[in-house]
Design brief:
It contains 4 helices and 8 strands; from the N terminus they run αβββααβββαββ. It has helices at 2-18, 87-96, 100-104, 140-154, and strands at residues 43-52, 59-70, 76-78, 107-108, 118-123, 126-131, 162-166, 169-174. The protein is elongated. Residues 67-84 have low confidence and may be disordered.
């Protein structure tokens, strides 16, 4: 019994000594974490950006799925309607805020939680968003929610320049910083 205690006490010291030849290194920056978008077969995915309560107001992507409904012509439409209007549809869902599951996961929105009239124009210069609310006083996370969601609806790499016009002025053009 005593021999077992001695061996048990020596084991941590042996493991500690085994790591003595490894020198400490500085932190190696490797960039942002990889984000992979995967839409299950038969579903249409739309990416929205909400603010994470756990990561110092950083915006995080969320995929919202819409079921495809066969309309008899061979092309499916979500909810039996016409296809979503890209950026305008995504921004409408963004202003509606996170759903229950997203809120339970610690996500929130810093955008106004009222109905907003949204106009979107896509051009070679980027995405122009017109809102019937004030925009110049929006926090940086709220601005990033808008820029990232609008840019993501246009291109998968979020590299699109976005300009947002409100009742009190213009913010942008800016790019998604996530």
């Amino acid at each position: 019994m005593r021999r077992g205690r001695v061996l048990g006490a020596l084991l941590p010291l042996t493991l500690l000594a085994a790591g003595c030849g490894i020198r400490a290194t500085e932190v190696v920056e490797a960039g942002e974490p990889a984000i992979v978008q995967v839409a299950p077969a038969g579903q249409l995915g739309m990416v929205l950006y909400f603010v994470s309560s756990s990561t110092a107001s950083r915006v995080m992507p969320v995929v919202r799925y819409a079921e495809w409904v066969e309309n008899g012509s061979g092309s499916g439409l979500p909810y039996g309607e016409k296809p979503p209007a890209g950026a305008a549809k995504a921004l409408g869902l963004l202003f509606a805020g996170p759903n229950r599951a997203e809120r339970d996961a610690g996500l929130r929105s810093e955008l106004p939680d009222r109905r907003i009239k949204i106009g979107v124009e896509l051009s070679a210069q980027g995405v122009r968003v017109a809102l019937n609310t004030q925009v110049t006083g929006l926090s940086e996370p709220a601005r990033q929610q808008l820029f990232c969601t609008a840019a993501q609806a246009r291109t998968a790499d979020r590299g699109e320049a976005v300009t947002v016009t409100g009742t009190d002025g213009v913010i942008g053009p800016a790019r998604c910083a996530v």
